[in-house]
Specification:
With about 120 residues, the chain is mostly helical.
Length: about 120
């Protein structure tokens, strides 16, 4: 069995998906999930300690997940040599990072207002 045959069989088994993409997705999901847990825990701790409340803004955690997913996928794809697709993920990760910052600012303003 040649290398091309093995790759064709692997693509067929993975419904046309490239193995590199599958691996990058798996790693990016793991990194993003860990970032969400960390960010959510820190915001929850901060809210309880300083404002005696629960986290009112779940969007912070959602945007953190997507930002870290996009940025980690960019890094992983760059390591694998997928230059074109990696830039799309960098832009996506940067946009989601801006959304994280905006959601954090909004959340802190709600806490200051006593909402």
């Amino acid at each position: 069995m040649t290398k091309e045959d093995i790759l064709a069989k692997a693509r067929k088994e993975n419904k046309g998906a490239d193995i590199v993409m599958l691996e990058a997705n798996a790693k990016a999901n793991g990194i993003a999930g860990a970032a969400v847990i960390l960010c959510g825990s820190l915001i929850g701790l901060f809210a309880n300690m300083y404002y005696d409340r629960e986290v009112p803004e779940i969007w912070v955690m959602i945007f953190t997940y997507w930002a870290s997913h996009g940025l980690s996928k960019f890094i992983l794809l760059r390591k694998r040599g997928c230059q074109k697709q990696s830039w799309v993920w960098l832009i996506y990760g940067a946009v989601m990072t801006v959304m994280v910052v905006l959601a954090i600012i909004r959340t802190v303003n709600f806490w200051k207002a006593g909402a």
